[in-house]
Specification:
The protein is α+β, with helices and mostly antiparallel strands. Helix content is 20%, strand content 35%. The chain has a single domain (8-69, 78-90, 109-126), classed as Beta Barrel (OB fold (Dihydrolipoamide Acetyltransferase, E2P)), CATH 2.40.50. The protein has helices at 29-35, 81-85, 89-92, 117-126, and strands spanning 8-9, 14-19, 22-27, 38-42, 49-50, 55-61, 65-69, 74-79, 101-105. The strands form two sheets. A six-stranded antiparallel beta sheet has the order 1-2-3-9-8-5. Strands 4-6-7 form a three-stranded antiparallel beta sheet. The model has no long low-confidence stretch (mean pLDDT 96).
């Protein structure tokens, strides 16, 4: 299972890549594998404020519908329009083409509470 070292992870299987004060958010390879084929995504509009731990969108697969949870608080400054028309990119490339949103972080210290790659690998090994 691919768990990139440069990302931080939530227990809900979202990842975040921090670049300056902006975090790019997606779901992990483990999550997309558990979901099966992703068929629909609902993402927030640019300008919306999201709060850490709260639902910011919806992901639907052939198996079920799940909420997506924000790994950090802030303002949505980007969203991946391409995956709205091609949600299968989440399955094909969860860490690259399958990213979901970008957040301008309100509090950089929130990221400190997220798991690093080693901790996330240990968490999914228990599942």
């Amino acid at each position: 299972m691919n768990v990139p070292e440069n990302l931080r992870y939530t227990s809900d299987h979202e990842w975040i890549l921090i670049e300056d004060s902006v975090g790019t958010v997606g779901i992990t390879e483990f999550a997309q594998d558990q979901l099966g084929d992703v068929v629909f995504l609902e993402l927030p509009h640019i300008g919306k404020t999201v709060d850490r731990g709260e639902a910011f969108g919806v992901i639907e697969s052939v198996k079920a519908v799940y909420d997506l949870f924000a790994p950090a608080s802030g303002e949505v400054v980007g969203r991946n329009e391409a995956i709205l028309d091609a949600p299968e990119k989440v399955n094909q490339s969860p860490y690259d083409e399958g990213w979901l949103i970008r957040i301008r972080l309100a509090d950089m210290t929130e990221v400190d509470g997220l798991m690093d790659a080693a901790a996330y690998r240990a968490a999914i090994a228990e599942d």
